[in-house]
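Researcher: Last one for today. Full complex below.
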Amino acid sequence: MEFKYHTLDNGLTIIGEINNRAQSCAIGFFVRTGSRDETPQISGVSHFLEHMLFKGTEKLSPFDVNELFDRTGAKFNAFTSEENTVYYAAILPEYLGQITSLWSQLMRPALRDEDFNMEKQVIKEEIAMYKDLPHYYVMDKARSLHFGSHPCGNSVLGTNETITALSAGQMREYFSNRYAPNNMVVACTGNIDFDSVIDQVQSFCGAWPSQDVRRNLEYTRGTNRKERSEKPNLVREHICLVSPAISAQDQRRYGASLAAMVIGDDTGSRYFWQLVDNAVTETASMQFEAMDGVGAFYSYIRCSPENVEKVDTILDDIYRTLPGSITEDELTKAKNKLLSGITLRNELPMGRLTEVGFNWVYLKQFRSIQQEIDAVKSVTLGQINDLLAEFNPGTYSRAALGPQK
Amino acid sequence: MTQRIDKFVLKNGMVVIGEPMADVASVAFELALPCGASKLPPGTGGSAEVISDWIFRGAGARTSRELMDALDGLGLQRSSAVGSSLFDLGCAMESQTLSQAVDLYGDIVLRPRLEADQFELSRELAIQELAGLDDDPRQNVMLKLHELFYPQPLGANSLGTTAELESLTIETAAKIIKDKFRLCDAIFGIAGKYDFAAVCDQLSKLFEDNSKSTKENYSYKLPGAKYVHHTHDGAQVHIGLMTPAVTLENENYYNARIAVSVLSGGMSARLFTEVREKRGLCYAVGASYHNLKELAGIACYAGSAPDKAQETLDVIIAEFRRLSKGISDEEIANAKAGLKSSLIMHSESSSARSGGIVTDHYLLGRVRPLEEIKQKIESVTADSVLAYLRNNPFEHFTVVTIGPKELKVN
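Model: Here's the assembly. Have a good evening.
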């Protein structure tokens, strides 16, 4: 494995982790923009724009784009979060040139009115789809409740109303402010010819002007608000807890991931033994999400409506007894699970792409798999207990969604 | 790329298949037992799901907690799945922990403690999971579709019914384990970094037993087209649709796979183009090949707002029917490129390969070499797919909808 990087004059950085023994490769454009960079008037624009990039350029129609991707057999897609929009493809090495060229061109989309109006229908269907997935719905609700007026509470999808009201002109303006070369990173992994990637990106993207791009990086500990909503067609109670944590830039992030695993991994965690093993809940899990300048622990719990009170009592007990209580044995198990996950994920160029890309987005660093492994191994019990003393997940915002009482 | 397939058969008939992978530090194994949902005694639906939790609640010398601690202590990434025919226990890990993991799975399969109080908890969790399906119309519609498309018991939902789960006794569940965990009919697949001789030696010590094969030979027929609607006051109508296709054993298998890819292999494929790109009817629409050993079909899902759902279903059915009218060489080339790249990317994942070799062995009695699959894909032409469609036309559709509006299947 060899790491290489190159920055164009306009600030666009290209990074690559080269593994010439791999049979495939992956490439992605990581744009540092998402719903936290939106104003209420344009809520949902980042995600809608992600869809619009597939609608082509002045030279390529939407059907051309789909055809060009499919001709290579690429496994390609994109996703939008609160703070990143990522376009990626996993491909066989012989098609890397074609796909690099295609993504590079798509980063300067035509944003035609007729495509905008058609895709608006698709976005509304996506919003409707998530309404029928209570798990996602309650997570979104909890995020918005927890972050309150902080921009990380902004909805990624937007609402039917904001999407209906959004104009193609507003999208073009947002695009021109956010898709600057100095606000994106091109990452590639696996069996790649890095120099030819540089040449191609330079030829398509080298003339784009850099510009001043800002983001509100204020930290927040959240609102601790609690809210329950009802839907008559539901049969289960869906609960999401959100509590403050450290940011993606904080060196204690490995400890935070391990802490979330000790408390709420799918197997063998405190949630598991006190909620799932005894069938009080159907599922209960916790994850640490590191973001730009801010972070949070998220828990998702699903149970019968009759068990909600019991669940709250158990959660109180878990968090009351948490301070200083994590044991060496719990930490070792969490480390082993995290480490095997790192090994397996990183064996595939596509799995490696997101790690390499996000490490650069957040830290401006290349971190080898070995560095990640060493960092996980070096976390001590004292560090975990200190972290949980400062960020006890027992003080949380709580959104619930369930049937009518 | 050179590919090697290792094979060893235990004295009792249990088959061990391996695929070594260079350049990985991981290994994954999958143990497939003949205890899938369709292999259960009548009236015991859902029992395999209960069993899949119960056997992990203590085994051999270890209590439930000690067993979980041991599995987690090795950092195992575990999975278990109850399919139509097989009950799969899978596990991926860093290769140095393989032998300890296999020992633990030996206990879980051969010496589960099967304690009464733990049984009640496993059963309660299965009942909860079944209830949870009502809150997930997207997953539910596909389960109900399989139930309607395949003859019973092949299409049975692995969670059974609430009545079956509530009436399941500890004695019945324990007897199912005794009768159905037949190692002589089990397949153990392993892929990644391993020493095959050492694996076989360990498996011979652990899994050699006196079980007798009781392979059943039933013949099944698809029940024919039907439409069923389930009212649900949600935001979308969730549409599941299935039509028959040939199985993996059939010489036309690759023609069927390419036909599905032309319909739904990528974003330039017909369903995405006609339903989403040209009409904006859906966010999610897609079709895929679904096979059991005995029968197979092409399954399609779409979710659409009530005022667009009828048009969505009409366009999907029209696209299935239109396929036999003509397919371009470009469409065939794209479908081939997509299938071949999936094949190569799967070959890089130890988990995907351990599952893949078990499935191949179960369905065909052998593992298809990647080179053979590539050649078969390559040999498909527009004419061969059209000839297949003439003999096996997409004409009869089993449809299930869940949502606020009932549709018409035209």
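Chain A has a mean pLDDT of 97. The first helix of chain A runs from residue 45 to 53.
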